[in-house]
Amino acid sequence: MQIAAGPVTKTIAAINIVVAVIMLIPGLYEPLTIAGALIPARFSMGDAVFGDVGYMLPACLTPISSAFLHGGILHVALNMLMLLMVGANLERVLGSKGIAIIYAAGIFAAALTQFASDPQSAVPVVGASGAISALFASHMQLFPRNRPKAWGAVSGKLIHSLQLLAAWIAFNLMMGFVGPGIGVNIAIWAHIGGFIAGLLLTWPLLNWRYRNA
């Protein structure tokens, strides 16, 4: 039986799709990307170094705006497919507030780690992948194929989380190595940062939701 996506998952997907369609209007893709993309150098060196490149949102807003911008139809389609794959189950278990918190935390954790990886980078970073990575981390913890047993005083949950993190880091490092060779630049640290946020928040949010059960 398929479970329909909840309101938060649907809303996030709808906003991303609408923005992607707007960006298809001739002449809008470049100015929208410049205006809303996460550019680490804006935080470390200020906007003056960019000269007159057109309107730019305040840098403090770009972690959010960049998560709703994408580099094309394929980019947004893949991200929304992954969102819908995990969003339905997560929203059912964690509730609308829970999934919204994880998604928002993923946005900011992704932006922070991407900035920390190269503070002077002037390469625009766009996409919901960091936030969706947080959802993937949460989904993998809540719906595991198998969960390792405890090792002495170390719980099986913690071991499972560490295994997931190691696998995610390895996968993204591999993608970061292969991507440039096929003409794709992947913000691997944004993925890793978002994933860590999801790992850290899943169980506290689950316990909070069912605190009175």
Largest sheet: none
Q: Helices and strands: which structural class?
A: mainly alpha
Task: Compute the separation of the termini in Å.
Answer: 26 Å
Shape: globular
Stretches where pLDDT is under 50 for at least 5 consecutive residues are none
Mean pLDDT: 90
Order of helices and strands: HHHHHHHH
Strand residue content: under 5%
Count of discrete alpha- or pi-helical segments spanning 4 or more residues: 8
Rounded Rg: 18 Å
Give the fraction of residues assigned to helices: 55-70%
Describe what you observe in this structure.
The protein is mostly helical. The chain contains eight helices and no strands. It has helices at about 5-25, 30-35, 40-45, 60-65, 75-115, 130-140, 155-180, 190-210. The chain is globular, with a radius of gyration of 18 Å.
At a glance:
The protein has about 210 residues and is mostly helical. The chain has helices spanning about 5-25, 30-35, 40-45, 60-65, 75-115, 130-140, 155-180, 190-210.
Features:
single chain; about 210 residues; mainly alpha
Present the secondary structure layout.
Blueprint: H1 7-23, H2 29-36, H3 40-45, H4 62-66, H5 73-117, H6 129-142, H7 156-178, H8 188-209
Helix pairs in contact: 1-5, 5-6, 5-8, 6-8, 7-8
